[in-house]
Write a structure and sequence with these properties.
10 strands, 34% helix, elongated
Length: 307
């Protein structure tokens, strides 16, 4: 089995393969500098990079005409500074494929992206569940269940909230896999690495719940990976996953409520936890797929290609 691909590289690989099967394509790295010669029949689809010298920025802002200029990137807007540089690019684009959960789409009218809402097509992130087998088949006894976080600790990840929440809990196992400075009240298990089934088989024996307290996070793939492995997930709406029955909701403001919610999971019946686990796995298998992801992009581009 090939090693799982991390986002955003996984998006490039799956989407390029799909589009190449339907239309002639050329692939450039999103960090690549320079410019390309656009023809009137061309369609450009690019992930914006903050560097104004990159091909994507220079081509989108170029005055030369082509069939369509399209963007694809994660959109979230609680920390506006992260994506402010994209606004001139959105203005010059014909369509924007926004990788974002329901929460960010539902609050779009109050964001800096509101003037271009009609250009935006929402995309749910995807994973290949064949690379993330269901591993969590049972849970530790109440009082011994562990909490797990996977990811970096950039500001949008809300790790201050995570640390405060973990500090309110008793001495349950609390683990973190990721890069960056230490997070209070949670032990780093490992630096971020390829999360192979062999490695995760050890992790699922000690840890029982996946916790994410992001404050401005579009649609993190780590949550999908956790659901595929079979972890019940507790996360904030600002993690992107919102109003989903099998996901337990946390708060970006109320630490006490977070601790109470996670404590309830600690002593919840195993039958309930298995129900959450099975519901999450089923949802990832049926909805958060690369087929759905690529087809959504293709439907958006096809009218321009067929002109």
């Amino acid at each position: 089995m090939p090693q799982p691909l991390s986002a955003p590289f996984s998006i490039t690989v799956h989407l390029h393969k799909f589009l190449h099967e339907h239309v002639s394509t050329k692939l450039y790295d999103w960090e690549e500098n320079g410019s390309i010669k656009l023809n009137e029949a061309d369609v450009i689809l690019g992930h914006p990079h903050p560097n104004p010298n990159t091909i994507v920025q220079k081509t989108i802002l170029d005055n030369r005409k082509c069939r369509a200029k399209a963007l694809i990137f994660p959109i979230h807007h609680a920390i506006a500074s992260i994506n402010e540089f994209t606004l001139p690019l959105i203005e010059r684009s014909d369509i924007v494929f926004a990788i974002m959960g329901r929460y960010w789409h539902e609050t779009l009218d109050g964001s800096m992206f509101a003037p271009w809402k009609n250009k935006i097509t929402r995309l749910d992130m995807a994973i290949d569940t064949r690379q993330y087998p269901k591993l969590k088949e049972h849970f530790n006894l109440p009082g011994r269940r562990g909490y797990l976080f996977i990811g970096n600790n950039r500001p949008e990840k809300g790790c201050e909230i995570l640390g405060e929440t973990m500090g309110r809990l008793r001495n349950y196992p609390k683990g973190w896999i990721g890069e960056g400075p230490e997070i209070p009240n949670i032990q780093r298990i490992a630096r971020y690495s390829t999360l192979t089934p062999e490695f995760m088989s050890l992790i699922v024996e000690k840890f029982d719940f996946f916790v994410n307290t992001s404050v401005s996070d579009a649609n993190p793939a780590t949550i999908l990976e956790a659901m595929a492995w079979g972890f019940p997930v507790a996360c904030t709406p600002q993690s992107g996953y919102h109003n989903i029955p099998s996901i337990v909701q946390l708060s970006t403001q109320d630490i006490t409520a977070n601790a109470d919610t996670l404590s309830e999971l600690q002593y919840a019946p195993e039958e309930y936890l298995l129900e959450l686990s099975d519901g999450n796995r089923d949802m990832v298998e049926k909805h958060y797929t690369w087929g759905r992801f690529c087809q959504t992009v293709w439907r958006g581009l096809k009218p321009f290609i067929q002109e």
